[in-house]
Amino acid sequence: MPESQQVHGRAMELARMLTRPATRSWLQGGRHREFSVADMWLLLHLLETGPLAMSDLAHWQQVNRSTMSVQVFHLESRGLLVRTPDPGDHRVVVVHLTAEGRAAAREMADSMGRSFGAAMSRWTPAEITALEDLLSRLIGDLDAARARGGAPGEGSTP
């Protein structure tokens, strides 16, 4: 399928662009260069969802709990996250944003919104909606294909 190969190429180009240090710094307003992509995802996810169990975070990032623990410890040592036992089950560790972590995540989210807004300032609302719809569909289809074992040729139809 040549069309899907072209999409793959453009998707990889976008992934490379969004993970370059200069682009990340621009998206983050230049204030959070010290945050890795994984740090950004985690802080922004907790801002969106609120506190989550360590196991839920590991599942969301598709890593094991020990990998998640290392990342949480890194951000916790910087005063951005705190871990507490779940009041209903003390075996469960819940991860919360601190006030500083919440402020950093909000600042990143706001800066990213402004950056994308500036980049798409000449787009029509219909173009923005179409991109959002197609990206959502692609993300869902990629996740479903991965869950199925990624059999070639399987995907959603219009």
Automatic annotation (TrEMBL):
SUPFAM superfamilies: Winged helix' DNA-binding domain. The keyword DNA-binding applies. Residues 11-140 form the HTH marR-type domain. InterPro entries: HTH_MarR-typ (IPR000835), MarR/SlyA-like (IPR039422), WH-like_DNA-bd_sf (IPR036388), WH_DNA-bd_sf (IPR036390). Keywords: DNA-binding. One of its GO terms (biological process) is response to stress. GO terms for molecular function: DNA binding; DNA-binding transcription factor activity. This is DNA-binding transcriptional regulator, MarR family. The lineage of its organism: Bacteria, Bacillati, Actinomycetota, Actinomycetes, Propionibacteriales.
